[in-house]
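request received
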Amino acid sequence: MVLRVQNTMTGQLEEFVPLSGNKVGMYVCGINTYDDSHMGHAKAAVTFDVIRRHIERKGYDVTYVVNFTDIEDHCIERTIELGIPLEQLTEKYIGEYHKDMGRLGVRPADIYPVASHHMKEIIEAIQTLIDRGSAYEADGEVYFDVDKVTEFGKLSHMKRGDMKAGARIDVDERKRNPLDFVLWKAKKPDEPFWDSPWSEGRPGWHIECSVMSMKYLGESFDVHGGGTELIFPHHENEIMQSEALTGKPFVKYWLHGGLMNVGDEKMSKSLGNFFTIKEVLAEYDPLTVRFFLLNTHYKKPIDFNRQAVTEAGQALGRLQNSLDNTLHATGTASDIEDGFGAKVLEARKGFDAAMDEDFNSRDAIAHIFDFAREVNRYLEGQQPSKKSIESILEAFREWDDALSIFKFEKTEVDESLAATVEALIEERQMARAAKDFAKADEIRDKLKAMGVILEDTSDGVKWKIV
RNA sequence: GCCGAGGUAACAUAGCGGCUAUGUGGCGGACUGCAGAUCCGUAUACGGGAGUUCGAAUCUCCCCCUCGGCUCCA
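response:
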């Protein structure tokens, strides 16, 4: 099966072929380190975590880089406001990011470069751009000269004339062209600054991503990801400056994820309509949140609301239930082939085919739902075979490797609690036999209060801790 | 204005030329003393209009609406 990806650069679904053999270099824009991450950041992190996992599952050797930008307006405002050094702010929110994403099951990147730790390389890159005539200095500031670029708008598919300059931000009169963007900014009072040939100041917003991605992945690499709002100007500018720097194509596949919305607006810090990962995880299980994020194709926006997350939890519960049933199923002693293996194979194929089609986790999950029904039916029927049970579990393990949405451990229950529960169940069974249902229900409620859920089945009473 | 992504049953999502989809929720059954879980069955769709085709959610054109971007942003 070949992997196909929707490339923003070409607008096409393309077969994924890395630049050099088995190696894949992948860079994703992380966060600005001035505050706790919100659900929009969670969507991005989980999206690219799953994309990275799937590329690895295809057998590629991925070097995954996620950056932290700690020199930009918000970070600077914050460090001034709090009166603490920039490094301290950076460190704090990098720590929080790792905590939040760790809880969401996001596998750590191989490298997490930080903008302020790459000042030397950034200044060198800017100097090179000036030397090559791709950038110019004015009043201690340095601007990238967009008119020197022949292929303007490669990624966003816009022509120079299409732009509405100053749509939101006033045009700086020092720029030769309103579309020129700043590579180096002179400091303002109280701001953190670094020495440079042009002024004491700091880099502009885009240059650090070019410098850091190329430092760790080479001048050309395979995958660059981020949210759709970064296509222009951020990624477009990255391409222009990187290619001006190296004369080589910067990135082969550009992948952009849809945004997290609240109602009809995107979730963002500036709109104030955000939910932090911390507050959402205080209310919902991390696996539920992950499932919620993966239950829509990554290109599409997701509307964040409690009903949707709650429903995601119910839906995931259905799958987990099926997995739990399998984990607790006692196979027959015989190692017979009862034909269920074919169903497992079919489901696994369906899952992989969906993931190969531009990481369609939603479609992949639909295959798991179909499979879960098959499994439930199978387990309720004749005695399942050990071999089939094992192959079902193998499928779930594989899907978990891809999506990380399941729990495999049987809940450990300590013996005294188990004995208490068993005794109560016994008592309830006697009450039921005597048709004393009031008492039976009373015992069931009591167990429920202890966190024990009973299920009366044809195989006897089952119970589990929730 | 320009670029991009969308509009699928009650809701949320897949599908993207013929197989009527997945989850939650309805409704009706099975199993239950009841509940839950599970299984079986069932109803309600493809923004609007033209066109191509034996056949269109799916392709083409036009229109309407929503969201994102056009130098804060995942």
